[in-house]
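Structure record:
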Amino acid sequence: MKRCFVRHAALFLASCLLQVPAAQADLPLVELGAGMYRIEAELAHTDEARQTGLMNRPAMPAHRGMIFVFAHDARHCMWMKNTLIPLSVAFLDHEGRILNIEQMQPRSEDSHCAAGPARFALEMNRDWFAGRNIAPGARIRGVDKLPAAR
């Protein structure tokens, strides 16, 4: 009886872990740079990928992030509904210059907006930018190679 329960619990846990939305697992990775740091960023350049973002993920590797590509420069805003990990978001202009960096709490519906017209938003684990002395005015390399928003 005990062995049967353990097997069922393990199968249940495995089935829950496999229910991560497909869009998260299938996003292409792009390489970006900030100062001397390499960033592996998942590319969110479609409506579906931008809407899902980093929702429902329990963790993210330290060197990994997500780059959101928008079709037009605007004062884009982000929120954290259904996002389980604390994040920092850097809003970037069309040349990759950081306009502002916002700290975002998990599961919050508070809006965090660009300080000016932004073309990109780069989400990293909370305090990633501060821990590397990367601040507004710094440039993120590689955005010129990103595909256009769809």
Summary: The longest strand covers residues 64-74. Residues 78 and 135 are 19 Å apart (CA to CA). The radius of gyration is 17 Å.
